[in-house]
């Protein structure tokens, strides 16, 4: 397993490059939006969160969390992006698939 560490400067430069950032976000959205409805459902985002293993690792070392703890963390994260609370989906915010 590889671990990638990005410093703040790399992230700021990437976000500051509007074209590269927009292309990257568009490609990620299209890949996540498996039903092509222009919105990301909780289940579509959950697959990506599970692949990223955001909460299960700390610098590549497995951390133990119960399935209920993980579900709670993922749901909480999704809720932050679900601005209109429309059946647990967050919209594309202008990203066209």
From TrEMBL:
Domain EF-hand: 26-88
Gene3D superfamilies (UniProt xref): EF-hand
InterPro entries: EF-hand-dom_pair, EF_hand_dom
One Pfam family cited in the UniProt record for this chain: EF-hand_7
SUPFAM superfamilies found in the cross-reference section: EF-hand (SSF47473)
GO terms for MF: calcium ion binding
UniProt xrefs under PANTHER family: CALCIUM-BINDING EF-HAND FAMILY PROTEIN-RELATED, OS09G0482800 PROTEIN
Name under which the protein is recorded: EF-hand domain-containing protein
The species this protein was found in: Linum tenue
